[in-house]
Structures are given as C-alpha cells and as structure tokens.
Amino acid sequence: MSWCAVKDCNSGRKHRANLYGNEGSDVRFFRFPKTSYYCDKWIDSCGKNRNGINTNNARICSLHFDENAYIPKPLVETMLGISPRHKRKLKFDALPTLKVWNTSSCIDYVEKNTTETETTNLVDAGLEQIHQEPLNNELVNLEESGVDLFNMSFQNDHYCTTINGSNISTSSKSTIDAQHPSIEDSWNLKKNKDDAQEISRLQNLLNDKMVENKSLKEEITRLKNIIAIQEGKLLTANDQKRQEHLFEIHFREKLSEMFSPTQIDLILNPKEKVFRWSNEDIAAAISLRSVSSKAYFYLREKKIIPCQVSLSTLRKWAATFSVEKGMLTDVLALMKEKGKSMSRNDKITVLSFDETYISHKISYDKKNEQILGPYKCVQTVMARGLTCSWKQPVFYDFQCPMTKDLLYNIISEIHNSGFEVVALVSDMGPTNIGLWKNLDITPSSSWFINPVSRKRVHVFADVPHLLKLARNHFIDKGFDFPENVYVGKNVLEEYLKISKKSEFELAYRFSEKHINVTGTLRQNVKLATQVFSNRLAEALKYCGKKNMLTMYNWKEASELIKLFNDWFDLLNTQLPIDKFTKSYGMDEDSQNELLKKMDSTIENMKVHGSKKRLPFQTGILVTNASLRNLLIDIKNNYNDIYYIMTRRVNSDVLENLYSYLKGMVGSNTHMTPIEFKYCLRWYLLGKHSNMVFTNNHNTQDTDESCLVNCLSGIIFNDAEVIECFPTDVQADITDDALTSVMSDLGGNTEDTEESNSELLDNYDIHSLMEVHEMSEIEKECIEYIIGSVVKKFISKYPYLGEKVYHCNENNSSWTEQMTKVNLIRPSSDVTYVANVIETIFNIFHGNNGLNKSPGIIKKVTDLVLKEINNEIPVEVINCLVRTRTFIRLNNLNKAIANKIFDVKRTNVKKFIC
C-alpha cells in the first residue's frame, strides 16, 4: 500500500480515517515528477531529508493539492455535475501547496493560480476570526467566517504563511488544539451537512448512471458476442480459403500435364470468361481443328474439354500466318528465333523433297483474289533434324521440278536462319535423277558443296522407295548373278505350295498377294519388307536344308533376301538400338562390312533382261557411300556425335505429310491447289506447330499414323490376331465371302449346343493323336508357337520351358534357327498338352472351320482339362486354346483374301481379252 511522503501526513496508514474522517477514502497518491526542477520542489514540500526520499517509489497524496493543480474537468463532466476525483490528473507543473512544510517554494505557484486580493482577504478573514475570541471560548463560528482552515498550511508545532511580504505569526497548532479541541469537529459537522444534499444528488445521478452503465454493459456483451461469432466465421472462412488454395495448387499440379493454365482456370471457374487466350491455347485449339472441324464443333458445344476458342479467333490467328507458295518466310523467321535456344548439334539439318499429285481442277483464292491451277503436282521441301527430332516444311510450289539453282537457294535461306544442311534425300523419280546428274552425283562422288558453308552435303536416295523398286524387279523379272545364277519369284511360289499343306506356316505373313501385288499395293512398304524379311529367308533356308526345296537356287534366294533385310534394318533405325539393330556407327566395323557386301551384290547383280545398271541400284550404291561419308564429317565437324539414326535420312516425313493433308480434306481423291495451301497452314499451326508456339520438339515420324490404322492395330494387338493383309483387302471381306470360303473348305458352320459337347467324350483322344501324324513343318511350327506362349509365363512358371540359343546346323530346329536371345523351347508336358488341344480343337471346330457358338475358348479349355493329368496351369492352357483359335481365324481370312484376288485377276483378264 502507498503512503504520503509529506512529514507527519498519515495518508495511507491505518489510522488515516480517524484523522481525516470520511475524506480519507477519496485520497489519491501521485508520483514525483520526472523533471528535476519540479521534483526538487516536491521534495522541499515534504519537510524531510533529501536522502530519505526515493523519488522512484515515493508518493504525495491528493490532500496536498488544491483544485487549480488539476487538469480542468471535461465539458461532459462539468455539464453533468460530477467530479470523479480518482480520474483527475495533475498538471505537469503542479506543486503541493496544502498542508506542506515549506510553502516558500510554492508561493510562485500559488500566486499564479490565486489573485492577491483573494489571498489577502482569505488570510485576513481567518486571522480576524481567530483573534476576536479566545480559543478557550465557545466554538468558532466557521460558517460566519467563511474560512476553510484546511486551505491554510499548518504542520506539526507551527505553521507560517508569508503573503505579499507580510509576516503572520501564530501560536503553535498544539496550543490551538489544546484550547479549542472541537474546531475541527465543528467544521466536519458543517461540511457533512452541506455534503449530504450533494451526496443525495450524486447518489441519484449515480443510480441513473448505473442503470445506463448496465444497459451499456449488456450492449457491450451483445456486441462482444457478435464479434466473437464474426471472428469465428472469419477464422472458418480463412481456413476454408486456405484449404481451397491448397486444393487449387494440388489440382493445378495434377492437370498441368494435360491442360494449359487457362483451361485449368476454366475448370475451376466455369462461369468466368477468358478475355485473352494464350499461344498454347490457340495452338491446342488449332491442332484439334486441323484434325477435324466436326470434332472441334462437337467438343466446343458439349464442353467436354475446357477449350472454347471461337472459330473466328482461330481464323484471325491463322490469317496472320503467311503460306504463299515458294519459301515459307514466316516459318523460316520462327525457325531463326527458335534456333537461338537450340544447340549447334540440334540444328544439323537434313532436307527431303518430293512431289505428289493434286487435282487438275482450277481453284479460286478468295483472300488474294487469284486463280490457282490447273496443276498436275506440288513440290514440297521438308527440313528435319539429324540428331534432334524436329521437322518443318520450308517450301512448296505447284508444277515446280527441283533444280540445282532452286536447291541452292533453299539451302541458303535455311543457312541464313541458323541451320546447317548436311544431307539431301529424295526418291528415284525421273526429275530427281536429272538433278543428280546436274550435281554430278555418282557412287564414287555422292556429295556436293554447300553454297554457303562450303562443306559437303551428302545425297541419299529414299531407302523405303529403293526397297519397293527392288521388290518390283525381283517379282516381275528376277535378278541375274554371275555364273548364270537366276533368282526370282519362282522359288517363292514353290515355297507357297509347301506351306499350303498345313495351317501352320514358317513364314505366316507371306502369301500369294505378296507375289501378285498390283496397283496401289505396290506403294505399300510393308508388303515389300515382308518379301525381303528375315523370316522368309530363314523359311527358304530351312526348307532347303530339309530337302523340301531342291531347285530354283533356294540358297542364293535366301541369302539375297537376308541381305536386303539386314541392309534395310540398318538404314531404317529410329533408336540407338532398334529391335536388336544398332544405329550406324555403334558397331561400325561390322556395319561397314554389311554395306560393303551390299555394294558388291548390287554391282554384280543385273535385273533379268537389262544390260546396264538400273536407277534403284545406283541409288543403293550412292546411299551406302553417303552414309559412310556423312558419319565421317559429323564426327570431324561436331562434338559428341558418334552414330546416326538412319531413318532421319529418308523421305517418310513427306509421305506422312501428304497422308495427313489428304486426311484433313476427308477424301481419297487428289486435293485441289487451294485445299493444299490452307490445309498446309492448319498443319503448320496445329498439331505440328510445336516448334512455333512451344518448346517441345515434334514427335518422330514413326509415331504418326492414320487414325483408322492406329485403332485397328490396337484392336488386333489386344486380340492377338496376326494381320496378314492390308486394310483395303479387309474392307472387301464380308459375311457372305466368309460363308462361301468356309463352305468350300468344309468348315463346321453348325452351332454346337452346350449339351452336344458331351459327344466329344466318345472320341478316343489318344488314338486320334496317333492316327493324325503331323508333318515336320507342323511340328516345328507348333513348337515355335507354344514357345511364344510359354514365354509369357516363363517367369511365373519356370518349369514350362527353357531358353534356346541360336544354331545354324543342318539338323537345327526352326526355333533354334530363328532365335536371337529370348525364344523358349517348351517342355514335354506342354508339348503333349498342345497336341491334345490340336486334336480336341479339330473335333470341336471341324478341320477347316470355326464353331460359332458363344464361349468357344472356355468350352475347348474345359474339354482339354478333362483329358490331361499333368500340372499345366489353366491360364496357360487357355492362352494356347485362344492362340490356336486365332491361327484358324487368320487362315480363313487368308483364304478369303486369296479368293478375292483370284476374282479380280479373272475380271482383269476378261477385260484385256
């Protein structure tokens, strides 16, 4: 508890109430001022030793300050008539002037706050009243004197007041107290009487204020509750907002690989509109539009994907991109800008050019108000990366054969864009052969000088085109070799006679249509590769070793086909190691040996009936020489390149371009000039515009294919059906044709009921297996097929078979002859199960048909399980039954295709006659 520092002042002590009466309850204590001047004044007023006062903790009570020492009351308190003393504050220069020891130091302050007349009158009146009557007489009438003794300073035994230079001496306080003990009591009674009314008034006012205060407290409580509720809602909203923010971040991360930022915004806020589409959004929309306008309309209307770019916006963007015939300057400008972020190796460029036929119709270009046509063909030039997978059309023109000057101009423009041409690819068309002559291209000099960089540009013939030409001459006329060795299609026809005897074939993809190929099928590279295939070469070799083939130079034919197969694999790699074939340069010695062997064969070979070397032979020799020289130059002029992926030096990119543009038109007929022009623009800005709008490289040509071929390929792969003929033949296959063929072959066209399967129990399966003795080819083929099935389960069931290593001996099996590293020879138990399956399969389906009842795979599997006692897993048996069913299905389709070809050949003969 605090107490007053003034000497003999009992404020703050236990008996203060006895001394001061009720007034002691209103006493307040004030700290000493921080200012040293005023602090010294306060210390002087206390009447104590300076060292005895700790100004940090000492206090002086409010009884020692008059009204003028306080800061004036606020207007509100003045109007209400209240004076809350406990809230009153002292002025900064306030000094204690009441009941203090040393008043001399406070005179200036008193004079400042009290006029001279008021002070003199106050003191004179008090002294006169005191001297008029003895102190021991009756009680001084303080009401008449009007003097408040407490406004006079008295302390301990004497007090003195000095005002205006006059000295007033009085008796000691102790004498006065002794003679007039009731003065103070009388004063207190009078004061209490006067204060009673004031207290009553203040009490009433206090009650009113308490009521008002209560209502205000209630209002404060209500408002606090509202604030607490709102704060809770705010915390909940902030937490929800934070959760939504975290969800949005996670959501964007998940969808960033599939959608652009704008598309993700549309998914999160579907009602908001997009005021500006990004380049990525425009490129994606143009890609979809270039594939199919109907698909774009459908997706946009149904809002299946968040892409709502209007066609008008797409047209505005497309209109800014120039695709006028000649050099595509806008493309070159974009390539130049893109090349700034590419390495020198990434900008190594291969040029491919080719012509395609277009419609002879005359077209009108509305934008340029120009007539186009009639034209016969369009020349297109494509630039692509040798070490980096990018491609870009850079030139097109109608009725424009490639000349030396035009080629030099194109190479110069590309070089000015920051890309260096190192190779040139074209087919062996008549105009291109003329260009080779102008450039002095020969097998011994397979390059020309770059007009800008003065380095060698190596010339290549399109390898797939060379393979088709070789196939055509091989089938049509055959090849002559030294020592009167002739190799032609007669050996292939002899092999087909052998393979027709069974459903199981060594070269199961090879058929009569490969020999009798005509019309547009001659443009099919796949058919050419199946003629010059390793499987057909090994089949001829196997049949020759087994004395099934004894004439037609089967050995030379097998070696020739094998050589073409290996050479094409080397010149068609799209990966560093592509299906066991290394890219050129990774095994340079053996690869150069292969090229040397190919050169020797081509030089010594002549097409039957021709006395000189044909263009396709020259193309092979030039291509081999250019490949060797290109690798040398690449190693000398560039860093960190030691192999070439050879598919990038062929013209597949142009073939894919023409197929894509024709697909955009939606017709198999030739495009008009105006269609080619504007489809090319959609091509550049759409799917293949990654080089224009994004940092991603284009996909490789081999990954691009027609939509129908893609879907059919997936379906056939999932069903494990072996495709044996092109889609145009498949389109001619109808149910009537299938029924006709199955009837001719004696197939089982009756549906077998579930209960009829019990009739199979009447057969002695083991006796039938002994009676039906398989040929050697059938046994070898079945072993090969079973091994391919077992290979799928060998890691799960190792006891089903064992690995086979390559063997070329005369007594080697077909599996040993065909294997490279991973073929499997099935165990004896699996082979026995396969023989049981073959017997039951022929009973269930017939010898040359298929049962059309549902659940045929399960039915045959159940029948097989009844006949075997070994521990072959059910899933393996099921896979064997399914594979055998597809083999039968494939053979039926082959028979249908052959019949259709026979009918077409017959009609052609009748027309010619």
From TrEMBL:
Keyword field contains Mitochondrion: no
- A single GO molecular function, which one? zinc ion binding
User: InterPro entries annotated for this entry?
Assistant: THAP1/10 (IPR026516), THAP_Znf (IPR006612), THAP_Znf_sf (IPR038441), TNP-like_C (IPR022242), TNP-like_GBD (IPR048366), TNP-like_RNaseH_N (IPR048365)
Give the matching SUPFAM superfamilies.
Answer: Glucocorticoid receptor-like (DNA-binding domain) (SSF57716)
Which keywords accompany this UniProt record? Coiled coil, DNA-binding, Metal-binding, Zinc, Zinc-finger
| Pfam families, alphabetized | THAP (PF05485), TNP-like_GBD (PF21788), TNP-like_RNaseH_N (PF21787), Tnp_P_element_C (PF12596)
**Residue stretches making up the THAP-type domain:** 1-99
What's this protein's name? THAP-type domain-containing protein
Q: List each coiled-coil range.
A: 199-233
**By its UniProt entry, which SMART domains does this protein fall under?**
DM3 (SM00692), THAP (SM00980)
